[in-house]
Amino acid sequence: MILIILLAVLGLASGVFVVALAAQLRKRPAAPSLEGAVMSAVTSFFDALGIGCFAPTTAYLKFRGIVPDELIPATMISGYALAAATEGFVFITSVQVDPLLLGLSIAASALGALVGVSVAARLPLRPIRLTMGLGLLIAAATFSLSNLGLMPHGGTATTLPPALFALVVAASFALGVLMNLGIGNFAPTLILISLLGMDPRAAFPIMMGSAALLMVTSGVRIVASRPVNLALVLGMALGGIPAVLVAAFIVKSMPLEVLRWVVVAVVTYAGAAMLRAALVPGAEETSPVRDAAA
């Protein structure tokens, strides 16, 4: 029942987004951008592996000057919305995880994102990014030792005892709040689930489901009210969806030992990127929630 509710909500939100996008295309006809499709195919593939697509897309769009800097966040959110929804559908339906843990974690993340819209401006961004970046690098090192057999090995569980269950839900809420500071939830969720002894695959429906719900709901408001590049948005949607399906198949069929090393790589990359965002001026990530609420 929980999975049915989650899929129904995501399906309804995705349908509303498609209707809103179609309405804008009737007003401003546009053909899909081939460049947008190719870019999205690459970035969406790695996004479905847990690496994230906003940072590389921001860098590419700035380099190419395809859209004004102030429209990059709105373009990415609306362009990747359907690819994110595809990720959500695929991982929720194909990866086994406790439905109650999945539903409460996604709900907590969405609630945190909404609460964070009003409180994020009062949070100290640089110290949070420094702490999160260092924490991710330490966690990646710890998980590497586990993979090498120098510490207790990760598990294959699909659920958790009550105390750890509550920890994941609480962490999902906190990460939802931090999305408003441009701090993604993919790497923290991956490493938390893995270190708690669950199968790393169990993190994918949690992190992809929450991201999908936020992206499509934010995308509805954006395409209805922002002057986004519709050709680029269409291209990104068409290129991203098949890339997500290919990457999802790889994740589902990947041997667990290999997947654990993928987790290390993803978390190390995210930790380094977060430290760079904290230490290098102008190296910020993008916040879909705050941008949609603006």
What number is the mean pLDDT? 88
Strand content: under 5%
The total beta strand count reads: 0
Largest sheet: none
In short:
The protein is mostly helical and 294 residues long. Helix content is 76%, strand content 0%.
Describe it for me?
The chain is mainly α and 294 residues long. The protein contains 12 helices and no strands. The longest helix is centred in the N-terminal third of the chain and has 26 residues, at 2-27. The mean pLDDT is 88.
Task: Provide the descriptors you would attach to this structure in a database record.
76% helix; 294 residues; mainly alpha
What layout of secondary structure does this protein have?
Layout: H1 2-27, H2 34-48, H3 54-64, H4 72-94, H5 99-119, H6 125-147, H7 162-178, H8 186-195, H9 203-225, H10 230-253, H11 256-279, H12 288-293
